[in-house]
Amino acid sequence: xxxxxxxxxxxxxxxxxxxxxxxxxxxxxxxxxxxxxxxxxxxxxxxxxxxxxxxxxxxxxxxxxxxxxxxxxxxxxxxxxxxxxxxxxxxxxxxxxxxxxxxxxxxxxxxxxxxxxxxxxxxxxxxxxxxxxxxxxxxxxxxxxxxxxxxxxxxxxxxxxxxxxxxxxxxxxxxxxxxxxxxxxxxxxxxxxxxxxxxxxxxxxxxxxxxxxxxxxxxxxxxxxxxxxxxxxxxxxxxxxxxxxxxxxxxxxxxxxxxxxxxxxxxxxxxxxxxxxxxxxxxxxxxxxxxxxxxxxxxxxxxxxxxxxxxxxxxxxxxxxxxxxxxxxxxxxxxxxxxxxxxxxxxxxxxxxxxxxxxxxxxxxxxxxxxxxxxxxxxxxxxxxxxxxxxxxxxxxxxxxxxxxxxxxxxxxxxxxxxxxxxxxxxxxxxxxxxxxxxxxxxxxxxxxxxxxxxxxxxxxxxxxxxxxxxxxxxxxxxxxxx
Amino acid sequence: xxxxxxxxxxxxxxxxxxxxxxxxxxxxxxxxxxxxxxxxxxxxxxxxxxxxxxxxxxxxxxxxxxxxxxxxxxxxxxxxxxxxxxxxxxxxxxxxxxxxxxxxxxxxxxxxxxxxxxxxxxxxxxxxxxxxxxxxxxxxxxxxxxxxxxxxxxxxxxxxxxxxxxxxxxxxxxxxxxxxxxxxxxxxxxxxxxxxxxxxxxxxxxxxxxxxxxxxxxxxxxxxxxxxxxxxxxxxxxxxxxxxxxxxxxxxxxxxxxxxxxxxxxxxxxxxxxxxxxxxxxxxxxxxxxxxxxxxxxxxxxxxx
Lengths: 483, 305
Hints:
The structure holds two protein chains of two kinds.
Chain A: E1 18-20, E2 23-24, H1 29-36, H2 40-57, E3 60-65, E4 68-73, E5 77-84, H3 85-109, H4 114-117, H5 123-127, E6 149-156, E7 162-168, H6 175-188, H7 192-195, H8 204-214, E8 225-228, H9 237-247, E9 250-252, E10 257-259, E11 265-269, E12 272-276, E13 278-281, H10 304-309, E14 314-316, H11 327-331, H12 333-341, E15 353-354, H13 358-366, E16 371-375, E17 385-386, H14 392-404, E18 409-413, E19 419-424, E20 427-436, E21 438-441, E22 445-447, E23 452-456, E24 470-478
Parallel strand pairs in A: 5-24, 8-9, 8-13, 13-14
Antiparallel strand pairs in A: 1-2, 3-4, 6-7, 6-21, 10-11, 11-12, 15-18, 16-17, 16-18, 19-20, 20-23, 21-22, 23-24
Helix pairs in contact in A: 2-6, 3-12
Chain B: H1 3-35, H2 46-50, H3 54-60, H4 66-74, H5 83-95, H6 103-119, H7 126-150, H8 155-183, H9 192-203, H10 207-213, H11 220-229, H12 237-250, H13 255-270, H14 278-304
């Protein structure tokens, strides 16, 4: 028996592939008709192939459980998610606009603070931000860009609108899985690549290297770029090793680097100390330099901040850029774009209520059952209240948390995330998903073609995190317009 | 190449070799003791003496019998050079330098650790010991072969060979030391020495190769010469040192490291096994081991620190 698309019903949700039961969206038609030609057994066999490919290639993520770190095979659903190129071009322009504005904003905060003097955003917001680093005041990184690598989470609501849910500016991860997902799909569904024009994604390591070299301060023709990892116990270690390998850069730990009397950074090699020009750091700000931040940090490099401040080494992302990775700052991004670029935002924010404003707080408190409440500074979905799925006790708890520290909370109406078909026990069923594209900014700005699609593999669930039963999909930006 | 990565692959190779050698030593010693006449003074506690852990052993164990010695050497997690610790350290060094090693090396080493952890207590009583230790030896050899056959022979591989050969030459001198200590004060006419030296050759898998090389019987001076001075036998000290010298020459900044190596190599050449008795042989072996440690120190200073 083969797939009957008429039986696939996404219900109220916006589905990325099917518009109404039996009818595929234009860019997905090649995909759905090809899938219809496959038997259930064939589809199942390809799923098994994909699982084997992932094990063979050693694509893993690390979870911490029972006091031990375990490498698990990366969860992957073989049915790709399709985005038409015209829509993608609009999203791409919106993401570039957003990151450019955010970088102007961060640079302003560490210099003249015009945006505060002009009363577009309140002063207290920055002073109480956990991501603000007074050590960075007055510094100007190359091209005035602080966040060189950004992973923005996009979601689509019922009515088809794509919203930016958050901007991850600190050490966003996931891009290696975007590339590996494509590799696996090419192995297990090769026929599909013949009849579709799918934008490639495997140029990312080259783009990343190009961007990193563009922020080097040294005059060397080929600046030495390294990837700084906290080590094998970090949950994203696979990605650190992947990016270092594909860029041809050294993967270093803090102890491999040292800052000498000349304030330059060197890595310890068997040839002796070798000068380092650019560090793609995958370590949090507070662990970067025990002389300046957390003195107990064994992950960092003593003197690194000194070297950076004197312009002897470039750090991506720049320390202190996390000030813009804050849910309350997020709510001001449309204003930030208008203020610095004098343009209207191309991509909307999810409507956001700030709890430090009395009126908005009252609105959140009165509508907890239909809202999502998030703390300003957490990432990875921690400390959140998902209203529609919450108990009365949990809502009571959040009422208390919010009144105690209103600056730390925002509320957003709970969206109904869009769906796409996923292979679940032999049949295709709609599952909710999001999308994380990656934006690079150095001398130029670049956006990945698509990004990492994460999918909640449990029916009705909105939790896409891989540590909590989430899966992932290959993401296709399909050119269905040119010849 | 990063110094840290060089250090880790070097130690990985040393620990794999050490695990294999410890397994061999326990395996053969067991057979030697079976052959010795009752009442011979040689005991199990020679093994902690020659592996350098005697003080720790006697502090923690009251009875110096077979069971405690074997437990100390194989399964004691507080003994830094016990077999299971060697395997665990090898695995940890491999785990943290996976990006320069062939993928299967990590998988096999990981499996070796799982095997050793699951079976090592069964290797404590005599029954089962031989089979489990032999399996561990095979797996170590498989790893060595896998690295030789699938890893690019670059600087990383040089550090692996250096680590392996230094550890190997160190163990060969220790085996000679067991022989020397076993025969201390023994009557020459007892015929004991043939048993002892045959066992020592077997501990290094050298018996057949020795036989091919030396047609007359098993004599102390010939065995010592074979294990220390033979240019072609891969576990003899002379051969191991030549391998190390070749690798050192490949590496950048190697100039200072050659001096301590050549010094030990000359000492090996000058040895006259025929003129040594048990005591002077023991002293000679001691000096060689100090020399190995000097080579290691120089390597550490040059590339790892």
